[in-house]
Structure formats: structure tokens, C-alpha cells
Amino acid sequence: MLRLILKVLVAGVLIAILYLLLTLRPVPAQVTYGVSFSTLQAEHLGLDWREVYSALLNDLKARNLRIPAYWQRTESSRDAYDWRELDFQLEMAETRGARVVLAVGRRLPRWPECHIPQWAQDLSWEGQKIELREYITAVVQRYKGNSAIQYWQVENEPYLKAFAFDHCGPLDEEFLKEEIALVHSLDARPVLLTDSGNLGKWVGPYKNGDAFGTSLYLYFWNPELGQFKTKLPALIYRLKERSMEIFFGPKKTFLIELSLEPWLVEPTQDASLESQLSRMDIDKFHEVIEYARKTSFDTQYLWGVEWWYYLKEKHQHPEFWDAAKMIYAQNAKK
């Protein structure tokens, strides 16, 4: 009897795997490429962020953007909002006919993950939540009339525990749901939630968002192991996406963070050019693009535009910028 039960279980698992494989989304013939842009990262590299942002729109001609509305830059003084940075980015995006994912919340792209104004850092978590509600409300109310915005991203990889726990603390899932509901109450556009592609389970973000985005890091580096490459086949992304769809229904999905810059443990400007290029050279750049294409996501946001510009302007290495320019030019021909 036990043997029969085991056979039935094994058969069920095999049938489930076969079903997944047969119903996977095919690899798209054409991928739409976007880009994530961070004013913080541009400044960390000693660049004028306005110059970099203008170049990605006017020279690269990227037309799908992810932009963080950093709390500490939008509200550096309590209840005193400075909209100049976001106004510049969103007005230019709208003028160029670009489509924007605008990210709001405490945890947003780029280290240290949680971006909190100095004045709010000593508040209790309950106190921070009050201020976060006000900041999110202010951002959405100001920009909901901007036609460039297609999605509101709420927090960044909120379920991921592997990074920045010391800065962010544990996830308050009830408050995350409250943030999502708040954005929904202010504007009809969909909410995007994100999770790590390599380390995330995807369940929470996929289930709770209107759309889902994940990340892809092919090359890693740490002091003990040096540089290493993920062993996950691209098929894993397709299987995970299909599994989420079966359990929670079809949703728009993105590869929202496709890493095309070196993984460093020190500030980029403190790392030698040789070290930077050993961890992300132009051959790896093209390898990552090709690997990502096989994940089946038809919209992919490249990560590293500030570094490509930095190499071009500061180190006379334009090959990354030029390669990205060709990618976006192919999109423009669609």
C-alpha cells in the first residue's frame, strides 16, 4: 500500500513538472529594454545626475524608466518637500514620451536599501510609519497627473532578508499592505512589487501586487570566494513565473533589475579600473543580456547606466554605453 502511495505521489510530481514545462511562456523574439536610474548613484560616482539622466534619454534614447522617489531627498526637512529633482526627471520623461515606474517607500533601489531622512532616523517605527504615509501621499498626489507614469512601485524587494537587514529591520507585512492600499486609494494605476530573482521566493510580492518585477545578477563577488557565477539555468525563472501564475493568476511581469555593472564591496571610485573591468567587462555584458533573454521576460530594465556613463566620461571606456545605445536603437525600430 505504501509503495502504491509513493508511486502515485511520484507520478503526480512528474505530471506537474511536465505541465509546467509544456505551458511555459516562450522566449520572446524581441525584448523591450528599459533602465533604472538613481540620482544617488550618479552623485556617488562624481557625476552631475542631470547630465547622466539627460544623456540616457537623449543619447541612449531609453524610453522605459524606473525612477526612485527617495524619501530623504524629497523630504530632507520634516514637512518641507523639495520637488525639483523629481520634477526634472518626470517632466523630461513625459516630454520624451517615456514610460515610468515611479518607486515610493522607505526601501528603494541602491545601497543602503532603506533611505531614511536624518530627521526621521531616531523616530520609533510607529512614528516612521506616520511620516511614510504622509510622504507617499504627497508624492502620489503630486505626480498622478503625469502621463509618463505607468506603475507605482511600492518598496523594493521588501520580502528579501539577505541584504540590509541591519538598515531596514524585519518586514512589517501589514504596513506594506497598507502602503499598497494607500497608493490604490490615491490613483488607479497599478502597483508593482519586486523580489530577488536569485534569492527570493516571489510568493508575497507576486500575490500582493498588481504586477511583479524581479532581479537578475549573473556574476557575484565576495572576499572569501572571489568572483563566481550563478549556476541557475535561465529556465528556473520561467518555471518560477509559471508557478506563480498557476497559484495566483496571470499578472504583468518584468525583469526589473538586470545587473550590468561590477559587484564591488567598496565604493566604485575606490576600486581600480582593472578591478571594475575584471568583474564586468564587455563580454560579460553581452553574456548577461543573452542569458536574460532566455528567462522569457519581454520587458527588462538594465541596471548600471550611471557606471557606463562614468566609464565613458572619466575613463575613456565608451564600449558599455555604446553597446547599450545599440540595444535601445533596436527597440526604437520596433
From TrEMBL:
The keyword Transcription regulation does not apply. Residues 71-158 form the GH10 domain. InterPro entries: GH (IPR017853), GH10_dom (IPR001000). GO terms for molecular function: hydrolase activity, hydrolyzing O-glycosyl compounds. It holds the Pfam family Glyco_hydro_10. It comes from the Bacteria. The keyword Acetylation does not apply. Keywords: Carbohydrate metabolism, Hydrolase, Polysaccharide degradation. GO terms for biological process: polysaccharide catabolic process. This is GH10 domain-containing protein.
